[in-house]
Amino acid sequence: MDLFIKYPHEVQQEVLLNLIERAQNTFMGKTYHFSEITDYHSFAARVPIKKYEDIEPLITRTRKGEQNLFWPTPVQWFAKSSGTTNAKSKFVPVSQESLDDCHFNAGKDMLGLYYYKNENAELFSGKGLILGGSSEVYKGSQSNFGDLSAIIIENMPFWVDYGSALSQETALMPDWETKLDAIVFETIKENITSLSGVPSWMLVLLQRVLEVTGKKNILEVWPNLEVYFHGGVNFNPYREQFHKLIPKKTFKYFEVYNASEGFFAIQDRNHSYDLLLMLDYGIYYEFIPMDKYKGTASKAIPLNAVKRHKNYAMVITTNGGLWRYLIGDTVKFTCLKPYRIRITGRTKHFINVFGEELIIENAEEGLKHACQQSGAAVLEYTVAPIFMKEAKKGAHEWLIEFSTLPKDLAYFTEVLDNALKSLNSDYEAKRYINITLNKPKINVARKNLFYDWLKSQNKLGGQHKVPRLCNTRKLMDELIKIN
Asked: Are 73 and 85 in contact (CB under 8 A)?
């Protein structure tokens, strides 16, 4: 890690040239003349930026058994991902190299970084509770697929089993609700020292642990718990609830940024919200400034051209066979020496119906401020536009499931609105004297509304999450109907 922190651009260039050399005799390599690529500029000039739909035909062919299309070694695993709003499944290729050099290396680095910053940690005196996806692995004659966490569990190095609190049988249970109770009864008597998983589902699990045991907080069940490794969704809306469940001042939260496409960044300091971009996992990074974003027609820049506090869409080239792939996430750099990032949202998940450019980061920060000021706590939420109609102005409609209701919803709304104005000048301009946008409309969701909706979509557990910001009213109207 010290090497890529000291020489980030040299390490990234070496990653790129290695990927190109390895894949030059693949279908992709011959199509774009990889053998003639000598540097980043010739790579960017020859290879177009692509999204999933562009590479789906090659993935389908590989899933049927054809090999050497986008990666030279056999690709037999595919991480099934439905995305957040798209019902159509994606099948992201997972090569052996991406498992070994990316995902498994990242797991070791995550533990290494934690110990590096916490020399007195006693993580390995107990066991880790890893809450993965609820999907089984499906093995076919030509290829296999499953939730990424299921693929990782299926291919896990033997040494990981020694530290895991869950049997593989329980970890891979397909039905979330059956699995939930199985996890609780398998772990409540264990000495659990660490937790890993998506915050929304981990919260459900921990609350179930308290229901079953009758204890007041998680430390009464697992007194030696010392760290929670989390990722998948923004942690801010859940932070206070975890503090209540785990009331321990020395307890640590370590965030990671991983996806079906790769493992990208790890928190490298205690009590930090910034993640160290990992540059030596066989992933080459490019970035598209969001103020110039035009999808696959965008012009990307390499790591050495990025600036701090600017919003970028991320483009990746990987040892899983993804070439200049537009992953759909947006990040900003908080530090350039070393390169540290924060996840700001999704290229698709923002609201810009009225020119307000509201991104997830704004929404999360605004909610955090409103909760602090009003004593509220938020479990889940989604936001959609109220479109202009004749003489009526537009607005943003929020549907929020609170774990603690604000004492005064009107005051909560006012604080949220003012926070969004201070965070986003475009929103502030549209809200000025209600010129385009009226004050936000806030609906209180009934208990378990979002859980019930995810269940109806067969999306319980794992990486599944509620879309936060939408430019249409489809989801909002569905949810209001069942609220």
From this structure: no
Query: Is residue 104 classed as helix, strand or coil in its secondary structure?
Result: helix
pTM beyond 0.90, yes or no? no
Q: Name the CA dihedral angle for 211, 214, 218, 221, rounded to a multiple of 10 degrees.
A: -120
| Identity at 229, one-letter amino acid code | F
Place of tokens 């739909």: 53
Convert the pLDDT of each residue in 10-26 to its tens digit: 999 999 999 999 999 99
Amino acid code (one letter) for 239: R
CB 113 within 8 A of CB 182: no
Query: Any idea what DSSP says for residue 125?
Result: G
Whether the CB-CB separation of 336 and 207 falls below 8 Å is answered with no
Distance of CA 177 to the CA centre of its chain: 22
Distance CA 449, CA 401 (A): 8
Q: Quick check: 308 and 322 in contact, CB under 8 A?
A: no
Comparing CA positions, the residue from 366, 283, 287, 301 lying closest to residue 331 is: 287
How large is the angle between the packed helices 360-374 and 236-245, nearest 10 degrees?
40
Q: Which residues contact 272 (CB under 8 A, 6 or more apart)?
A: none
Domains and CATH numbers, the chain: 1-282 (no CATH), 350-482 (3.30.300)
Q: What are the b/e assignments for 366-389, b being 16+ CB within 10 Å?
A: bbbbbbebbebbbbbbbbbbbeee
Amino acid at 420: L
Report the b/e string of 118-129 with b at 16+ CB within 10 A: beebebeebbbb
| CA distances to 315, 387, 394 from 391, in Å | 42, 11, 10
CA 444 to CA 454: how far, in whole Å?
A: 18
Residue 244's CB is within 10 A of a number of other CB atoms, namely 13
The kind and range of the H/E element at 235 are: none
**Backbone dihedral region of 366: left (phi > 0), alpha (psi from -120 to 50 degrees) or beta?**
alpha
Q: What is the 3-state secondary structure (H, E, C) of 151-212?
A: HHHHCCCHHHHHHECCCHHHHCCCCHHHHHHHHHHHHCCCCEEEEEECHHHHHHHHHHHHHH
Dihedrals φ, ψ of 32, to 5°?
-105, 15
Q: What is the rounded CA–CA span in Å between residue 75 and residue 96?
A: 7
- Across 86-92, average pLDDT: 68
In angstroms, the CA 69 to CA 254 distance is: 37
pLDDT in tens, 253-297: 999 999 889 999 999 999 999 999 999 999 999 999 988 999 999
Give the span between the Cα atoms of 94 and 59, in whole angstroms: 11
Q: What is the CA radius of gyration of the chain?
A: 23
Residue type, 219: L
